[in-house]
């Protein structure tokens, strides 16, 4: 049996009168890659921020390796969890390398320099996220996709046990999407754990060991991709006709809009 890495117990969260999460309980174990999916506004980002300890839930608790997350100090938490947010605005003109080096902050003494081990972590992070050629660029001069890769590099440099990522590949081209998700997937063979939200259901299907499906702030389904990604479940949540095929090699479910059943019938027909 794998060990519990992070556990949510009865999480509720509201922003003023908006109930963003209702009664969320789940447990994520070592060596799992868990995909979090759901429509816009279903609570994915709120859930991930609470798991990462950067947002306090209105009620409920999070346990990291069996210990209440509230009992960890900032450095202790940063050695164990790397959180990569969905969006990020950056106004300081640090270089990419300087920004990635900040991922080592939890390991450094106050105003300390990077050790050989720290540099090794930074170099490995640059490779994993394909950021080598961005090294000397300014953070303010990057495209959305490049910025996303640099954020990931900082997360890798942090060398956490648990990666919590909010749509980390949404702005990337398909080549970088697959490259980054493959690197993340490999982390689980090094006793790491990955919790990652996806917009693209097919990437979630291909890379997740387990999927958590959110809808209207509730955890509506949890299980292997083939259990959660069914046309019955998804059509009810996304409210469009969908069909689910199965990839011949990976056996992963592949979700497609069902244009024949939809109001756009004929839009693909050629004269
Ligand atoms: P998702 O990531 O699935 O799109 P979010 O967790 O961002 O969903 O949002 C869940 C709900 O909470 C939405 O209705 C959203 O409008 C609301 N919400 C998110 N962040 C805030 C905020 N800072 N203030 C007020 N409402 C928010
Ligand atoms: Mg979100």
Please specify the SSE layout and strand pairing.
Elements: E1 4-15, E2 18-29, E3 33-37, H1 44-52, E4 59-64, E5 67-68, H2 74-80, E6 81-84, H3 96-101, H4 116-128, H5 144-157, E7 162-166, H6 174-187, E8 193-197, H7 201-207, E9 210-215, E10 218-223, H8 225-228, H9 231-238, E11 242-246, E12 253-257
Parallel strand pairs: 3-8, 3-9, 6-7, 7-8
Antiparallel strand pairs: 1-2, 1-4, 4-5, 9-10, 11-12
Helix pairs in contact: 4-5
This protein binds adenosine-5'-diphosphate (ADP) and magnesium ion.
Write up what this structure looks like:
This protein is of the alpha/beta class and 271 residues long. The chain has a single domain, classed as Rossmann fold. It is built from nine helices and twelve strands. The protein has a six-stranded mixed beta sheet, with helices on both faces. It has a four-stranded antiparallel beta sheet with strand order 2-1-4-5, with helices on one face. The mean pLDDT is 91. The structure holds adenosine-5'-diphosphate and magnesium ion. Adenosine-5'-diphosphate binds next to strand 2 and helix 1.
Class per helix and strand makeup? alpha/beta
What summary fits the major beta sheet?
6 strands, mixed
The third-level CATH topology is Rossmann fold
What is the number of beta strands?
Answer: 12
Q: Determine the CATH superfamily.
A: P-loop containing nucleotide triphosphate hydrolases
Rounded average pLDDT: 91
Shape annotation: globular
The top level CATH class name: Alpha Beta
Element order, helices and strands?
EEEHEEHEHHHEHEHEEHHEE
Name the CATH architecture: 3-Layer(aba) Sandwich
| Total domain count | 1
* Uncertain stretches: none
Query: What amount of the residues lies in strands?
Result: 25-35%
The helicity comes to: 25-40%
In angstroms, what separates the terminal alpha carbons? 58 Å
